[in-house]
Every structure is written in structure tokens, then in C-alpha cells.
Amino acid sequence: MSEEQRRRDRWRSLEELAGAVDPDAAMEFAPGVDEPPVVGRRDLGKLLGASLMLAGAAACTRAPKGRIVAYGRQPEQNPGVARTYATTMTLGGYGTGLLVEEHEGRPTKLEGNEEHPASLGASGVFEQASLLSLYDPNRLRGVQHGTSASSFQAFARALARPSDASLEGIHVLLEPTASPELDGLLASLERRGAVVHVYEPLSRANAFRGLEMAIGRRAEPLYELENADIVVALDSDLLAGGPFHLRHARKFAERRRVPSDGRSDVGMNRLYAVEPALTVTGSVADHRLRSRRSDIIHVAAAVLRETLALLSSPPAWALRVLPSLASAREAPDATRWALAVARDLVGHRGRALVAVGDAQPPRVHALGHLINAAVGAIGGPVRYVEPASRRLGAHTGDLASLLAEVDRGKVDTLVIVGGNPSYTAPADLEFARRVGTVRERMYVTEYANETSRIARWLVPAAHYLESWGDARAKDGTISFVQPMIEPLYGGKTSSEVLSLLQGEGATGGRELLLRHWRAARDGFDDLFPEALKRGVLGESASDEVSFDEHKFASSLDLVFPSDDRRLELAFQPDAHARDGAFANNAWLLELPDPITKLTWGNAACLSTMTARRLALRTEDIVDVRVGGLSLKAPVLIVPGHADDCVTLSLGFGREGDEELARGVGVNAYALRTQAAPWAAHGVDLVPTGERASFAITQEHSAMEDRPIALAATIDELVRDPRRFADRNRVTPTLYQVKPGATQQWAMTIDLNICTGCSACVVACQAENNVPVVGKEGVLKGRAMHWLRIDRYFEGSADAPAVHHQPMACQHCEKAPCEYVCPVGATVHSDDGLNEMVYNRCVGTRFCSNNCPYKVRRFNWFDYNRDKPETLRMAMNPDVTVRARGVMEKCTYCVQRIRETEIRSHTHGVPIRDGDVRTACEQACPTRAITFGSIADPTSRVSSLRRDSRAYAVLHELGTEPRTRYLARIRNPSPDLLP
Amino acid sequence: MTALVSSHASGEETPVETRVLLGNPTDGALTHELVDRLWSPGRAFPALLALTGTGSVGLFVAVVYTMTTGIGVWGNNIPVGWALGIVNFVWWIGIGHAGTFISAILYLLEQKWRTSINRFAEGMTLFAVVQAGLFPLLHLGRPWFFYWLVPYPSTMGVWPQFRSALPWDVVAVSTYLTVSLLFFYLGLIPDLAVVRDTAPERWRQRVYGVFALGWRGSARAWHHHRIGYLLLAGLATPLVLSVHSIVSMDFAISQLPGWHSTIFPPFFVAGAIYSGFAMVLTLIIPSRRIFHLERVVTAKHFDSMAKMLMVTGWIVTYSYAVEIFIAWYSGDPYERYVHLVNRPTGPYAFIFWTMLACNCLTPQLFWVKRFRTNEAVLFVAAILINVGMWTERFILIVTSESRDFLPSSWHLYRPSLIDLSLFVGTLSFFSFLFLLFLRFVPFIPVSELKDLKREIANENEPIGATEAAL
């Protein structure tokens, strides 16, 4: 029966019968009758449009009114392409110019600004990690009055004063600042009767006072290490701490490079260091003398005495100091040392300098400057300039005078701007108890911390990446702070808060800045865009100061402290927390200390001999007792530490609302007094019988005679320039790797100029979304750093040589990790990268087992799962966030390589040497890391690989690593050779 | 000391120690002796089952916790990427070697003493391989992608990376499990039929009947069965050697000092058989007592197994010596450090010396004939060897990893609670499965024993008499 017939058999309508209707298509019910009524197309369109508009209206705050200007190139409206802006970070009152990489309105990475004298393109650990502080979920959110939430308007009503009212009774306590704008504002407040106090726990007061003693006036010393053949650091970590340390490190390194043929006549510099505990500077010194902090004055005096004795025509002022120098104590080893140093200093007249650390008393600074004067350093490698601000280098006395005023009932309103004085003030000042009597206590702070407990008003402080402002560097160079993001938690800048006292209501930071500068400089509006763009205001460095050489040392009253052989307690700024300001920064907490490799906390550091004398072991908890104060602290025995001395770093043992900081380490401020801010005597270490556990990333510090971090003296290199050559040969092979792409990426790391400062480690963490695993994770050996700095000690435990060796994936041409992966998740690219395919990784960890450098890191848990929303904003969108159960490791910043390749492809411009810079390379203050293509024989990395010092770590394994090291060359003094 | 000489010994012409079957029971009596215990479990059985069952639940919990939380709940770290998980894997898979060695290789070599214990060993093998297989799965960072190690035609055209030993490991272990299971089952079929035929209850007959696959014991069926069994024995024999060889390559292909060694394949195989025989002894000595198997498990069996322990124990000892000698002789500082410094004097030295004591000294007991047939001595020795072989894997894996080339990355390994739970859990689960095996499966091969009895009778009687009897 055909289809046609069947259709005709059963029909429902005439049309159907006639074949006009297709029976299969015809439906019994009208379409849609069984469905719920729907909104019409037009109505739906209307609703969609309206909700979109409203969503847009609700989602955004209004864009800030002020224009900010991009660094270098015009902003492109290209999603996914990062923009860069210049800004300034202030630390200890001094500005460091930075460039901010910003993705779709959120800062994701900080780099140094090459045009800024404090940065020269480099950045340090605090600069790198400050990004994470911006997004810290523990930051104070919104204004609080008492225990209840309030508003900035309410706060403004409480603080605001009419513009003509006297500000008598209003005291402002803030951290040191060299901001011209804030300086101006404070000056105007002072004119109306307000009193401004400055307090800083890591004060440079000693440096200023010491220089004043020497030359008779206040000045800022600048050290130009590029002009110094001999550098003597007296308890000074000038390469990794304090203002201008990035510049010091760069300039130091420039004089540290050894030419390929190892000629010795290039004037490689020589560094001497005297210090109680090993610092970065001490660890790279050619000669290091360990000495208690209070004994360094004797070393300084001995150097000065020997120097003056060696001079054929001593300066006129020498007669003034020589008699008192004779009363300095003699220590046999120090005297021999001082003689050698003096000989070297005199032998390099005009090309040698002495730098003294802030923890040394003013007299040592004065001695240092006298030595500088004696060896003709002043006007040579040492210059004295006008201080960037009179509010730098505040003395603790300023805080004490505030409290005296409080006790006299003279303080009606206390505005604390920044800092954390309840925590950082000397313990004997009892700051928290005494300011409680002030009627109105206001505190502008980033965190609800120890000080916020005593404040009635809490105002969130703006992070510098949220602020408008300005700053001055150590040499006075002015740079501007421009905001990268709207304040996340409604933070306010110091100027914004203090300007309320001017009686003009709440004023925006940009307006305040412009108002100050328009008044201060003519035609500022023309200068401003350019200054914002470049990050510095041209020709703003301070003038050199003039002083009368005849008055030299006339106000110096050289008295040596009586010999106190009791145990000394020395305080140090912490490598992670600094003075406590960074105690809640996960990157810094997990950053291994450059010397001890300790993470998540601090320790009472002792020398081997002192520990033996006191019968203490590492991880013993002792009660540190000094002058009626006591603190329980765990003991850590550190090689190279001075005997009869305990070192404690500041900044830990927090009790505020900062989740990460709370309970980490011990609070050394509890032992710090006005009289002994840097070193106290008569310390007792009483064992408690308790034990602590240290999360130390490197448990073994000896090289076991293996050729890992190679070193030689300059003489040895000259004698045998090919001494490293057999570790740089191409190993014979049956398995030829075929040449691939036009670029062949490689890296060299110069161990000679690596100081171990660890800026690269944090930079890598920030760039590559490297997770933090916490103390437990570090204890279990699961720290995730893609780039670690191995630190080896060599020689005796008392005076070890220290070797720093940055260690990341070596990108072996014959990578042992690749052939053992069962799923091919780690493979080699044409351009020589050892690539990790996260998606393909199943996590057998065979690759890590077979990696001789142990640089692979495994995601033991889902480290990114419970990340707060703000911390997600800190993630670099160009880098995959790794999931649980996969392996990860250094990629040579492949995202940067590919970005450069794409740009080169789009613009049709070939990639030049230096176009691709890895995050570690970019941050490195000394430029120890060089990245480039070895396919180009003229590239820097190619020539460095041909250097006589170049070698491959574990060369004998035949892995052909793309990362090569340049051996460290020391330049010891012939006088001090054993 | 317990004498193994049976009281009801007959046949004065044969010395007791060489007999593999005591007495001359009838076929029916033998059947009842070996099968009847299936119908009446001992009083201790439920308690033991509950104990091991609880341990198995603990294993399950630890597995789920590991899978849901991440491998971080173990004590592993960088540099010790593999630790207890792989130690347990290698240990269990080693134990799983004796079964197939006894059933296949000794079968091909026509060793009579294999008959009584082969099923026992095969069961042990299967359950040990099950435990072993758990660990490589679990130790993956992302265990749900385990199948990426299997060469299957992926739509993305991605294959495993065959230069690595791990995909081969997957193939080797799964092949071994499959062949062992088939071999075990094929040998079991006639006995299942026996159980079916003698089962007292209808439902038991049915259940066993299903598993007996309709075995009728016809000549034709036996003909095929024997050919099949022989072929599988031939197939299983190379597997005994291949599995642990490939497992050893998981280490040997790496360049880690302490792993990078060419003697690993034979060393591993010997060690595996060593530990496997130790485990067979550990299990059979109490079973013999409990189930009164003195007739079928005799002094001859113990003697032979003790000799096997001596042979393999000496191979293992020799391998240790060669490793240490070559490390010294090579002059390679990293190898020397591992073998001459780290293992004997490092943080795990105690485990190293335990290993040497257990693995090298224990088998020397068996130079003495009395010890070879003494249950107590054998049992203690077997336990010591089990412990020794576990510590060997620990020393091999963990010491090598924890201190390799760069001292900066050295880090010790401490097992976590989960690590230990997993190990104890697999011991429980293994015992649980083995108890069920003892309870429900004829673990002494009934048919083969009858065969053996006849074979022995043939050897002892004139040929004509046998023919007449048939």
C-alpha cells in the first residue's frame, strides 16, 4: 500500500483529502497551548535592557575625578593587555619609584622605576610584597567609632576645626615623612598651635646625630658605591636595608663584575663588614668581622686611629680626636683587622668609604665620617646633602615628649596617623597605658592592631596604591604617588585626614596635592603630567651641604662605653616583617630569611659558642630577661654570629586583628627600652624546658664538598682562568637535540653579585601566582617557591663563608624530568623551555624525584580554593592558577616570552636582546640574573655563557641546563689572608 | 619446638621429611578432610572477620579522605615525592610474587611439594596484588585521571609517554593480576565441583555449582583443563619475572643516586620471591594448626620453602653487597654518599640496619636442618623477613630521595597518620579477604592432591600393579 493511498484512507478534513495539508505537520493542538504563558519578545527586550542598565548602575562606583597618566605609552583600550603606571612607595619616610602593572584596573605586579634614583629599575622584597598588602582581607574596613561602625563624615565632624581656630591641644603623631605636601600641611597646622610628633621604631636618628657631631650640621650622607674601591660597612646592611639600598646594591655590583679573562686590574671592589649577626651585606663581604654591637665602636676607633697613623699629613682635626682614641679598647683580632682595613682605605684615598648602620650610636657614625674625611671620601664616594625633610630621623625623645604632654593633661586630641606605636614604642614608655587619658584619640591605620585598642576613632588608611601624594628619596628627588585603584576599604591618606583640621571640609587627595604644588612651584600644571608619567620630578635632588672643615669634630665628645662583658641583646629589623608593618603579608612571612632561611617567625639568634656555654640548643625556648622585662623566645644557633650576644628581630608576636600575623614569632619590642633601643646588656637567657619548631626551608647548609656554588679568589682566577671550564663544556652525547625555534632561551646567574636579598623570590611569587603554604606546609617541606635561594656555609661555624645560589628550574636541554613523566605532562619546547602542561599532569611526582635540582613544586592541596575575593584580585591573569594534584615549577616567565613574541609578530619587529625580562631578572637589584636567547651569539646571555666563570651546576649529569651560573670571585685583602 | 613428624606415619620405606602427603587416605576421606571445614566455621572466625573488617573500613575512610582532600594528607614532600605509598606498593606486589612462582614455575618444574600450598599462595597473591594496586592509584595527585596512563585511543590523540616506566608498570601489574586471577580460577574449577557435589545444603550446591561452571570431571574436560592450565602456567612464568622487573625500573630509569642501578630487575625479582615465600609461611603455619593440615602440609613443604628463603635471601644479600661495592668502586660522590654514608649512618640508619639484620641474617638460620622444619622458628623468621623486606623498600625509596644531589633541598620524611592508616588498612583488608578465602574456597587443592596421591602410589608400586588398579 503506497503512502498516497494510506493518506487517502483516513482523512480529517477536505483539505487533507485534497492533499493541501501535510498530515504529519498538522497538529491537533495549537502550538504552545500546553506551555506556561511567556513574556513577549518586546517585553523581554525591555526587561533585559532595564536590568542591564540597573546592574551597571549598581555595580560601579563613580570613576575618580582625577586623571592619572600612564607610564611610557598611551593607554590602549585592549582588554588583557596590561598597562603600566609610575608611582612611589614610601618606606621609613623615603620614597622609592615604582612601576605598577595593571590589568583591567587592578594592580597585579610592581617593578622598579629605572628613572628613580632609589630604584634604578630594581625593587626589593618589601616593594614587591606591598602589592599583597593592598589586597589584604584583614585591612580595616570602614571608619569605626568606639566599637561601632561609623562613617568618614562623622569622623570629619569630630576632627574638623574652623580654619581660624587655634589647634592648641591637638597633637599629631605620625611616621617619618619626607612628603613635601604633608610637610607643608603639618607646618601650617603647627603654625596654628598643633604639635606634631614623629616616631619610628627603626629610626635613623643616630645617623643624623652622628653626622652632626662630625661636621657640625644636619645632613644626609649619600654613598656612591660606584666610586668606591673599598667599602667598609660597620653594622650596616647597606646592600639590603635602609633607604637607597637598591641603589647601593646596583652600584656595588657594578664594581664587582669580573671581566671574562679574569684580569685583576679592573678595580674590583673590596667589602669589609663588621656586624653582630650575619646580614646580606655581611654575607657578601670579602672580610667579615663578627663583633657585638657595642664593641663596634672600638673597631671604628681602631680603624680611625690606624688610618690617621698611616696618613703622611693627617688633617688638622686629627689632634682633636687622637687623644680620646687612645682610650678605645684593644681586641687582638680586631686590631689586626682594623690595621688591614686602614691600610686599604689609605691605599685607596678618595676611592674608599665607610658606612655605619642606624643601630650604631651617634659616636660610631661620627667616627665613620671622620674616617671618610681622613681618606678623602667626602666629595668622592661620600656626599652630604640637605636632608629631604626635617621630619626624618626622629628621636625616641619626641614620643617621650608627647607622653609627657599627655601626663600633664595638655593633650586634648591625639591623632595617630599610621604606625603602630602601642606595639612599637619602647616598653618602658608604657605608651598604651599613658595615652588612655587623652580625651579624643584618633587613629588612621591599615589594620585593627594593638594601637587601635586605645583609639576611639579608627579610620582606614589608604594603601599607597590607592593614594595621591608625593615623596622624596634619600637624595631629595621628588616623585609622585598616583592611585592605581579606588580605595578598596574606603581608606584615607594622611593628608586627607589631617587637612580636616584646616577647616575646609573633606578634600580629595589629588586636590590637596595640586593645591600644595601649585602654591609651591610656578607652572606646576605643566610639569605635573610629565612627572607623573616618568615617576620623578626632574632636577629635584637636594643640594650638597657645605661645612667648615676647621670645625670638624669640634662638637664630638668621644667617650667610649665601659667594657660590659655581660650578654648583649641586639635588635634587628626583620627580614620579613621589617618593623612589624609587613607582619600580615603572607609572601613575606613565607619568604625565607636570607641567612637563616627561617620562615613564619623570628628567633633569638646565638653563636655556636655562646649556645654551648649556655647549654642551649636550637628550638629551645628561653626566657629572655633584661632589666625587669622578659620575653619567651626560641633559640636559633646561627653560624657567623658574634659571641656573647643575642639577636632578636623586631616585628613579630602580634596581638592585633591581623589573622596571619597573630601568634607568629615573638615580640622583641617587649624588651626594648628608650635607653637601649638597639643593644641592651645584662641579658639572662633562662631555659624554660619548652621546645619550639622552626619552619626552615633549608635544613642542610654544607655543600658536602660537591661542586655546587663555585667560588674562587680573584688571584686564583687570574692564575688559572680556565678553572671552571670543564664544568661548562658540552657533554658528549649520542642523542643530539635538534635545533628548534629562532629564539633559544637561557639564563645566567652571577653568583659574584648575587647578595641573597631575595627580591627575586617575591617577584617570582607575585608574577607567577605562587601559593603560600603556611608554617605547617614549610615544616613538611612543601614550600612552593619556584625560585629559591640556596645558602651554603663554608668553613668554620664562627666565621663561615656564605654562598647564595638562586635555584629555579634549570631548563635542562636533556631534562631528566621529561622522560619519566608517564603522561607527557612535562615536555620540551622548540625554544628550549622545559614546559609544564598542568592540564595533562596526573601528579605521579616522578619528575620531581628525578630532578637533580629539586626545583619542582607539587600542589599537595588545593591551595587556591578558599582564597578571599580581594586576594584573587592580586593574581596575574596571564598565569594559570594551578589546581590540586599537579606539579609546577619555574617557566622562565613563559607568559612574558609569549607576550613579547605576540607583540613582535603584530608589529613586525624582531625580538631584541633584553625585550623579554623574567620577573626575577627585572627585580634583581644587582642585575645578577640575565635572560635572553643563546641563538643570538651577540646577546648578553650568550657572552656570559662564554665567560670564564660560567659553569653548569651538576654538569657531570649531562643535563645541559640552560641556566648557567657565574662563579663567585672574592677579593680578599692580602693582609688578612691566613 | 614442635616436631612435624606425623604420628600416623605409614610407609616405613620413605623418610618422613621427604613426603609431601602423609598416610594413605582414600579419595573420599581426603575430600571430606579438606572440604568439610567449609560447612563449619570455627568460633574465632566471626571475631576475626569483624576485626579485619573494621580495619578495612578504616582503610576505606583513609582512602576517601585522601581522595577528597588531596595527597597532602600524607607525609610526602619535596624531595620525598614517593614515600609510604610506593613502599607499600612494592612490598605488596613483591608478596604477590610467591603465588604465581609456586603455581606456575614449580608446576612447570614438576615440583611435588607445590601441590598442597599452591592455592594458598595464589589466593595470597591475588589479595596482595589488590592491595598493591590501590597505592599507585591513590598516590596520584589527581587519581581520577589514572586512565591517562593506559594506552587508549583518546579523541585528542594523546598517548602515554612510553619512555617512562610508569605506563609499563600499569600494564605489567594489571596483566599480572588478570593472569593470576585466571590461573587461580582455572585451577579451582574441579575443586569447586567437588565442593558442589559434597555440599550439604541445596543453596550451597547451587552457588558453588554456578562457580564450578558445570564441571563434570569427564576425561575430555580434564584433557582441556590440563592443556589450559599448562598454557597459563607457561604464560604466567615470564610474568613473575616481568612484573617486578618493571616495578624496579620505576626506580632504575631515574638518575637518583640509590635508584639509578642496573642490578635492580633481578634484585627486585629475588626480593619479591623472598618476601612472597615469607608471607606464604606467615599464613600457612597458623592455618596448618587451625585446620589440622598436618597430613597435606608436611615437613617437606617447610623444608623446601625454607630452602627457597635461603636462596632468594642470598641473592638479596649479594645484591646489597654489589650495590655498595659498585657505589664505592664507581667513585661517584653522590652514589658513595647514599650507600656509604647516608644509609648506614644517616637519619634512617636504624631502619637500614634492621633491614640488613632481617634480610641477611635471618635466612642463615636455615643452614640448620632442624630450623627448616621447626614451625616456631619458621614463623618468626618469616615475620622478620616480611619486616625486613618492607624496610628494604623504605630504605631504597626514602633515603635516596631525602638526600640527593643538592644538600640545600635535603629534607626528611615522616609518615603521617593517614600514611600509617593506609598501611594498617591494607593489612586488615588483605586479612579480611584471606579469611573469606579460607572460609569459602577449598584452599588445599583437592583434585590435585588426589592426583598427587596416585602419582606417589605409582612411584612406589610396580607399574603393572597400577595398571591393574586402574
Task: Explain what this protein looks like in three dimensions.
The complex is a heterodimer of chains A (978) and B (470). In chain A, the strands form 13 sheets. Chain A has a seven-stranded mixed sheet, sandwiched between helices. Chain A has 978 residues and is α/β, with parallel strands linked by helices. Chain A has five domains: 1-60, no CATH class; 144-203 and 391-465 and 486-508, Rossmann fold (3-Layer(aba) Sandwich); 220-385, 3-Layer(aba) Sandwich (Dimethylsulfoxide Reductase, domain 2); 568-696, Beta Barrel (Barwin-like endoglucanases), CATH 2.40.40; 711-973, 2-Layer Sandwich (Alpha-Beta Plaits). Chain B has helices spanning 27-35, 44-69, 84-108, 115-138, 165-198, 202-211, 219-252, 264-290, 299-330, 333-345, 349-361, 369-372, 375-402, 417-440, 446-460, 463-469. Chain B has a single domain, classed as Up-down Bundle (Formate dehydrogenase/DMSO reductase fold). Chain B has 16 helices and no strands. Chain B starts with 26 loop residues before the first helix and ends with a helix. In chain B, helix 5 runs antiparallel to helix 6. The model of chain B is unreliable at 1-14 and 464-470 (pLDDT under 50). Chain B is globular. The relative contact order of chain B is 0.17. Chain B is mainly α. Chains A and B meet through strand 30, helix 25, helix 26 and strand 34 of A and helix 5 and helix 10 of B.
